[in-house]
Design brief:
By secondary structure, this protein is an alpha+beta fold. The protein folds into 3 domains: 7-190, Collagenase (Catalytic Domain); 191-277, no CATH class; 306-416, Jelly Rolls. The protein contains 6 helices and 17 strands. Strands 1-3-2-6-8-7 form a 6-stranded mixed β-sheet, with helices on both faces. It has a 4-stranded antiparallel β-sheet with strand order 11-16-13-14. Strand 2 (47-54), helix 2 (61-77) and strand 3 form a beta-alpha-beta unit. It is flat. The two termini are 42 Å apart. The relative contact order is 0.09.
Length: 420
Amino acid sequence: MIRRLPIAGIVTVLAASAAGAAVNVQQQPDGQFFTAVRGGGATALRYDIVIVGDGFTAAEQDAFDDRVEDVVAALEARAPYSDRMCAFNIWRVNVVSQESGVDHPKDGVSKNTELDVRYGVPANGEAERCITSDSPAKVYEAAAFAPEADAIFVLANDSQWGGCAGDLVFSSIAPGFAGIVTHELGHKIGDLADEYTCYICDGSDSNVSYTGPEPAKPNCTIETTRADVKWGDLIDPATPLPTTVDSPPGVVGLWEGCQYAAQDIYRPQAACQMSATGSPFCAVCNREMRFALGAHCTPCERADTPLDWLLCHGLPHTRPPWWEILHLRWPIPPCLSCPPLDFRDPLEIVIRDLGIEGGVTARVVDDGGKVLATAKQEGRGVRIAFTATRGASYWLELDYPRATRLEAALQPEVLRQGQR
C-alpha cells in the first residue's frame, strides 16, 4: 500500500525538504500538491493512475503538464482503454528536478534529478530501453501526494525510446511514446507478458529456446494441445497449431516466440501491442484488459448499447442519437452481478418475447468476436444454442430491421438442460 499524507502533513514535510526529507513537489494554484487530470470518482472503485515526472525543471513544468495530457490521449485512442475510460482516476504530481533529462549510464551521462531515473545498463544484463529509478522510495513518496495510486507512472524527460514496468511504470517522452504508455500499462493492469523474442536484443540473445514451466502470464504458453491452450476458446478448429500463416491478418493460434524467447513458447497472434507498440492488443490481451478495467466501472458507465442505456435510465421521452442502431449486444449471463459461465455444457439463450413478429437474427460471440452460433427469430421469440467453455466470456447479439422497435424490457434467459 502507498502511504497517504494528510494535507497538513504534506505542508510540514515540504518545509523540511531542504534537509532531504521529501521530494520537491510543486504546489498547485488551489493549494494542493496534486491535480485531478481525469475522472474524480471514488478511489475505492476507480483504477487510480498517478503520473509523476523526472528530469523536468521548474521551467519545464508546463511541458510536463502537456505530456501528461499526451498520456491521457494515448489511452483514449487505444482500445480497450478507450472503451473503459470510466475505470480511471488520473492524478498528476509535479516533481521539480534541478537538471533537465535523466541518466544514461551506458554513455556516461548523469543528471541531478529528483527521482534518480535512468536507462538500463547492458553491461549489467539490463536492456538499455528499460527505464527505472535508483531511488524507488522517492517515486512512492511523490505519488503519495495524490489521493490514491493503483499504478504509478513515471515520465522520464528524455527523447530516447524506452520504458519498463514492474511495481512502477516508466516511459520516456520519445516521439510516438503513446505506444510505450499503452504497452507498459498493459503489463501493470492486465499482468501481460512481453511478447518479444529477445530481451537485450543486440544479437546476443537471439534464437533462445524457452526451458521453464508454463508461464503464469495469460498471453504466453508452452502448451500445444488445443484443449489445454489458455486461449483455446478463441482458436478456430481449422487453425493449425503451431500457427505460421496469418491470413486473413489477426489469426488467433500459437505463434512461436514470447517472453524473450524465440523458440518453444507461443503467443496468441502474430502481432500484438505487447510485441510491437504500434499494433493493437491481440484478442487475448484485449480480453484480459477489458476484464481488469471493467471491474472499475459501474454497470451503467459500461452501458454502450440502447438496451444497456434503457436498463439503467428507463425509456427516454425523446430518442437518443443512437436509437436507430440496428444492433444490440449484452453479456451472457445477462445480469449485472452474475459470475462468468464456468462449465462445459450445451446452453440455450432464450428471449421469449421480442415484441415483434419476425426479422431478428441472434448470434453468440466470444470476446474475440468469433461467432459460435446463430439463429433466426421464431414467432415472437428467439432461441439459440451453444456450448460454453470454462472461464470464457460470451455475448448475445441481436440484429433487427431499422423500422423495428424492440421491447425495452427484453429478458434473456440462460438455460442448462432446459432449466435456468
